[in-house]
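ugh ok fine here u go
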Amino acid sequence: MYTWSPRTAEVSRRLRSRADAILGAVWFMPQHELPALAARAACLGRVPGRVAAALFAPQHPDRVAVAVDEAWRDHEPDALLEARLAGATAYLAGALGEEPPGIDRAVTILRRVVETGPTAGHAVYAGLRSRPWPGTPLGDLWRASDMVRERRGGSHLNAWTAAGLSSVEIQLLTERWRTTSNPGSTTADQMGYSGEEIGAALDRFRARGLIAGDDSLTDEGRDFRERIERATDLQEAELVEALGEDVDELFDLMAPWARAVVAGAGRIGS
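structure:
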């Protein structure tokens, strides 16, 4: 049993941030009509769209379900996994080179971390754990980053559903809580929620005293959202423990790679 601590929060959030930037290769790479949502779900096999929608909340469930079901008409899961990996590693090679200095060490640390976390309640992470490692430096770096992101994403899903929120509610609350945006960050309307759905959710927040008249978070609202993030942190404690004293070394290695991936957007492979 673990308890929340500032170190758990700091390390797990920084790890997610570093991994997000590396994983950003899938957002910045040329897509060539790759069905992104089905490719993300493909580690679980040919799951129905509604199953993918449950796992990929807070994205609008109808949008996810339709996109995934349509993708399976023309694509096989293994082919999508291969295409996603190939595109991401090609982008990384353009941004970082085939074997950036320190990558073997970083992958060694990351593999120890991502092979530690419990899979219960983390279906997409479990799906990735079931797949063989790509076996190349960039492929393994990207796969480990994907696992970090999906692990914390599952923890977050567990936390906000336990707090009694709907998908649109957690999205709107997060938009007002975060001070910076990660690569791939989107807004509720970009996720497919209608003005009516968004307005109704904001009305519920006002009635609970979570947002003010100008739609910003009240102190109560910010505290409520922070408790959700702490509940997310707590589920990542095993990974933080596995990282141990290697945390600064890993983050120092990943920081310039993360910047290079983001800097290459629109330049590499276009």
